[in-house]
């Protein structure tokens, strides 16, 4: 069984019709263990709030997504447990702490992080963390 850390750019595609949604959904259909930091729920909630605020979805739809997300068999890790490494990664790579949190989890769990955030992915492909990051279409 493959283990992957998934970030919010991938998780939101499980629910919204976005580019790379099919690739993101393949993670749910496959024989994978999916790991997430607890921050994922906050980030997905924020995306859903924006969708409702800008008239791209309804509050009812957003609540349904939250219900389904909460029911998924994700391995959730408390961000406190690897915040020191997260900060080190953020400082070293000049990426945000939010994004670095997913990479820190992948590093500590010795697996790859799957992302659909092209800017983040491109910034890290030539870094010392390149082996821990995977583009969503390359699963």
From TrEMBL:
It holds the Pfam family PIN. InterPro entries: PIN-like_dom_sf (IPR029060), PIN_dom (IPR002716), PIN_Pae0151-like (IPR044153), TypeII_TA_RNase_PINc/VapC (IPR051619). The keyword Cytoplasm does not apply. Keywords: Magnesium. Residues 4-122 form the PIN domain. Coiled coil: none annotated. This is Twitching motility protein PilT.
């Amino acid at each position: 069984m493959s283990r992957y850390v998934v970030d919010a750019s991938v998780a939101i595609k499980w629910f919204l019709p976005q580019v790379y949604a099919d690739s993101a959904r393949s993670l749910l259909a496959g024989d994978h263990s999916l790991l997430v930091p607890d921050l994922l729920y906050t980030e997905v909630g924020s995306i859903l709030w924006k969708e409702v605020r800008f008239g791209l979805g309804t509050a009812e739809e957003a609540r349904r997504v939250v219900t389904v997300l909460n029911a998924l068999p994700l391995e959730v890790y408390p961000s406190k447990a690897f915040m020191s490494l997260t900060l080190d990664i953020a400082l070293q790579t000049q990426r945000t702490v939010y994004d670095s949190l997913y990479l820190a989890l992948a590093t500590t769990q010795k697996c790859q992080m799957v992302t659909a955030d092209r800017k983040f992915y491109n910034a890290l492909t030539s870094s010392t963390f390149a082996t821990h990051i995977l583009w969503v279409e390359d699963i």
